[in-house]
Amino acid sequence: MFAARDGWLAAKGWPLQWDWMELYLEGISMASFTLQINGLSHNIDAEPAMPLLWVLRDLLNLTGTKYGCGIGLCGACTVHIDGTAARSCQTPVSTAVGRHIITIEGLGAGELHPVQQAWIAEQVPQCGYCQPGQIMSAAALLVQKPHPTDKDIDEGMAGNLCRCSTYFRIRNAIHRVAGQETQETRP
Amino acid sequence: MSTKPTPAPIESGPRLSRRAFLVSSAAAGGALVVGLTLRGRLHSSPDPSKDPYNAWIRIHPDGKTELILNKSEMGQGVFTSLPMILAEEAEIDFSRITVIQAVNADGTGGSASVMESYPPLRRAGAQVRETMIAAAAHRWGIPTTECRARNSQVTHTPSGRTLSYAALVQDARRLPLPDPNTVPLKDPKDFSLLGRPIPHLDIPDKVKGTAQFGLDVRLPGMVYAVVAQCPYLRGDLVRYDAAKAKAVSGVLDVFDIPTDPNSANKNTREIAIVATNTWAAIQGRNALAIEWKPGQYHDESTESLNTQLRAGLDAQEYWNTTNTSLNPDTVPTAKRIESVYEFPFLAHATMEPMNITVRLEGGRCEIWSPTQVGGSTQERAAKILGIDKRDVIVHVTFMGGGLGRRLGDPFDHQALRIAQRIQRPVQLVWTREDDFTHDRYRPTCMHRLRGGIDQEGNIVSWTDRFANTSIIGQLDPRRAQEYELGGAVDMPYPVQHFRTSYVPVESGVMRGTWRSVEVTFNILSVECFIDELAHLARQDPYLFRRRLLESAAAHPPAPRSNLGRLADPAHLIHMLDLVTEKAGWGEPLDRNRGRGLSCFYSKTTYLAQVAEVTVKDGGIHVDRVVTVVDPGLVINSSGIRAQIEGAILMGLSATLKERITVKDGMIEQKNFDSYDLLRMPDTPQLETYVVPGGRPPGGIGEPPLALIGPSVGNAIFNATGKRLRKLPFRLDEATA
Predict the structure, then answer these.
(1) How far apart are CA A76 and CA A67, in angstroms?
(2) What is the value of pTM for the model shown?
(3) Domain boundaries defined on chain B
């Protein structure tokens, strides 16, 4: 089955390769887990210590949850676990079993969540990479504090980095969801 | 409306010559096709006789319009602002335009996309409009002068008859396009779309999590790779244990990557770890038991670099420019001072780490890359693989931040070599640690400024000695002055005896373009030192600047360099007047609080800013930032504000928090625990006033970044009497 490929490789002077199937069969120390994600059951085979982040991204192709630092300091990987914001890069998959996981893909349940709507209304994202994490953090914050003060927002959102520095609009968008005055000072 | 970066149709590939393009356009599904050439930043300007078109407008018989764009989207909003320019000039209903990302899109950067694409997009838009008008006039048998176009339709003004663009496509295709160089353009007075706040077309997908960044590319049978890279500057590999890594579940292969002979790191071997998922690859790398050895820069450190930079302040200069035959340091003055400003290396820290996905199949190479330079990636890939450039396609994805980092080096080479070896689609992922330790950093440098004033506070002498670990100097130290003195030699204040000189400093740390590049350190030095001179003259910093600029307006100084257009001093005065009024300059502030002012002209954009800070309990907090910006014509009044706000805050992050340090020939910072960025609690109140002037659009992504440093430095001085000159500003590093 690799004749065409191998012929091409040989023509290019590139080395022929070993059989990939064998390597795939070598998987060891894996375990099976059933995860509840966005209301659906997913069965996966993974190392128990594998962070939920990589299970979502690489095993389930739920790529809305982002990798940013791998040490829980940037917030790009934020998901909800049993209704609370959690860093999926710091969550071993074995500890997520039996818990209710929501990712950015499932936040709105078919339509845009009010936080997502506010993010559009305030035109928050620039590059957009950190925004799923920002939105998940903001949605969790608003459940805990439906009318957050600026100080609440400082504390609730301090764990989410944005290199485009959209913080000013994030603050306004959170206030918008809460139905409060924004820091609107535009001329 | 879709803005997903989808592969562009075949006629958009740069493999086609103009001639071939004309043939294929006739076959493009009956659409009217207009080609244009948008200049790629970092490349010479296009030669129309040689360059093929690299962007296209296609109007289909159903009226749908596509703009195939060779610019990439990294959050700066070009997927919205550029089609707005087209819609305005072509009189196309904006809601009918779809943006398609061209493959191999090249050269997005330098705040240039709007600034440089505005003229060609308008000319091409005018070609569309005039062709539609000609088609309608021909159909009606009336002169074109009786027709006008608006909202995707042509109206015969006397009779009120109309024809939609959709209905005119078939006729328009048979007409010759007007010459883009002579086609009449709209009077900007008649613009109805440009200047309005238009929501960014890519934002809905970005809030849903469905926008595809480079790291989100998933191909059938794809595997994941990480690389083990030497932590020492230009060091090398000693040994590693591939078996240990291969024993990790999910690891498929571990091997040396052939080094890149064109790289500064060509003597540094690297190891690829390929696995079924990213995490397994990282675990494999952790298990490698790898040993590295330092190279020629084994004793380089921040201290040794600072010693070199300080030595550079007195060393033989490589280059200078002056307006006097005298030595400014010895001409008679009433008072003189000297200050040294010190700047660290900075990391880009784009939120999406570096990555690239490669598929080699059937003698062809497909690449998915979040890149500012897809065309360069294409060329480099062809060279590395030894195949024709036309057999390489680079799909440019959304970038999770660009900031000048996504220029392909060196991850393109690594990924291609890995793909060659494993013969599977592969995604190369740099971890955050790779990103921090193998960046192309903003240079570390020092400015030593000496200034002398007369009794009235006029600047009699100004010498700026600049010692820099230059970017371009890595290739040729003698060319650095062409690129890295912007903002310093063309500073707007009149000086009787002026001299700038430059000394490059060697380092093993690789340097690169970091958003706003050289003006980040040049403008801080100039605008803080001007503040120092104002204080020396016992004059208000606003009135001091104003008086100097009035003098420059009355007696325009001779240009000090060929670095481009000088600011109009009268216009800078206008900006200063406006910002001080908006900020309440001169109104009393509480104890521990201060205000600082700065102004700047760059890429034809005028800016002035006042920052208010509180300095208390050993900490600096910026409370409020008032900025006025005249960018010339505004394209999207929502998007431009986002760019200004973001640039101010990224500049503030560098001003207060960021510093890369070197120890024992290694970069010390590996993640956000040791290199923190600005966060929500650090964010000041932003008051931004955009005051469009009557000029074509200027650059906006970078200029506002450079202003916040001097505004804050001057505000700290105002609050405390302490002049901070070492970045990032820390109160315990006060030198005054």
Answers:
(1) 6
(2) 0.92
(3) 10-207, 214-295+354-429, 302-346+440-733
